[in-house]
Design brief:
Low-confidence stretches: 43-49, 176-196
Largest sheet: 6 strands, mixed
Number of helices: 9
Radius of gyration: 20 Å
Strand content: 5-15%
Order of helices and strands: HEEHHEEHEEEEEEHHHHH
Mean pLDDT: 82
């Protein structure tokens, strides 16, 4: 059996969405039907769409855990010429901090919590439990790969996986421009002398999460649509104020998976909801 396909099958069986990479560690190009995104699906890396092409198209969005897809005739030629196996970290529920040089590794060791580490050709991958937006060049020699990105599979690594820390999430936040800006109108009501966001009231947030979980759990049909609409509702209320934590997102994902949704379906629904709201 093709070594890359064997590795991909093993990963997919554990719920890790995988895809083949060609020489140069890049995804295979779109098929003729999807060339230049004429299919209308996933026109770029930021807006995943509905395309369900049977070929390994659309880069990271081709990552799958479906054994029928992995072993299909449409993927056979890709596996025969593949140079490596990649996976979608966000679809696997993790974030990869890609460190490409000694300085980046030194910074991570001095700043970040110890977690699972995988050696790479030029540096290390530090892998954390939790998902976030992917951002390149957050620091010299450092990329963040999670949602809507792919990472090369280089082995399981060593060490226990830690929860994604706030310091990594903060790296994705763009610093304000030094250019003078006109005063901005607040879009969130500010209550109380402390100026704290009202959504930080534990009872308010917990009640909203409980209702969202109940809505998903009680869905008798159209589970995909229910999960997406529920994620959209939660994010429209709490997505801009910083109230949501990994624990809250895990509650929603767990409820959805209890109705048969895969991690990838949950991640895609969450990502699409964020995109729809401009988050």
């Amino acid at each position: 059996m093709n070594t890359h396909l064997r590795i991909a099958r093993g990963l997919a069986a554990t719920g890790v969405p995988v895809l083949p990479l060609r020489r140069g560690k890049v995804p295979f190009g779109n098929c003729r039907t999807c060339a230049r995104n004429v299919c209308g699906g996933r026109p770029n890396m930021k807006t995943p769409g509905p395309c369900a092409c049977p070929y390994p198209c659309h880069a990271w969005a081709a990552a799958t855990t479906n054994p029928h897809t992995l072993n299909s005739p449409q993927w056979a030629s890709a596996w025969r010429t593949a140079a490596a196996v990649a996976y979608h970290p966000g679809g696997a529920g993790v974030t990869v901090v890609d460190l490409d040089n000694a300085a980046a590794i030194a910074w991570a060791r001095a700043t970040l919590p110890v977690t699972r580490t995988v050696a790479t050709t030029r540096g290390e991958h530090w892998i954390y439990q939790g998902v976030m937006q992917s951002v390149n060049a957050v620091k010299p020699g450092m990329d963040i790969k999670s949602l809507m990105a792919y990472a090369r599979w280089l082995g399981p690594g060593t060490g226990a996986m830690a929860v994604l820390p706030a310091v990594v999430r903060a790296l994705a936040v763009k610093q304000p421009s030094p250019v003078h800006r006109a005063p901005q109108t607040l879009t969130m009501p500010i209550r109380g002398q402390s100026g704290a966001c009202p959504h930080r009231t534990p009872a308010y947030l917990d009640r909203g999460l409980a209702m969202a979980v109940q809505r998903i759990t009680e869905a008798s049909g159209a589970v995909h649509a229910t999960v997406y609409r529920t994620f959209l509702a939660v994010l429209s209320t709490h997505g801009r104020c910083g109230c949501l934590t990994d624990t809250h997102v895990t509650r929603l994902f767990t409820a959805a998976q209890g109705k048969g949704e895969t991690v990838r379906h949950c991640t895609d629904a969450w990502t699409n909801a964020r995109t729809a709201l401009g988050l």
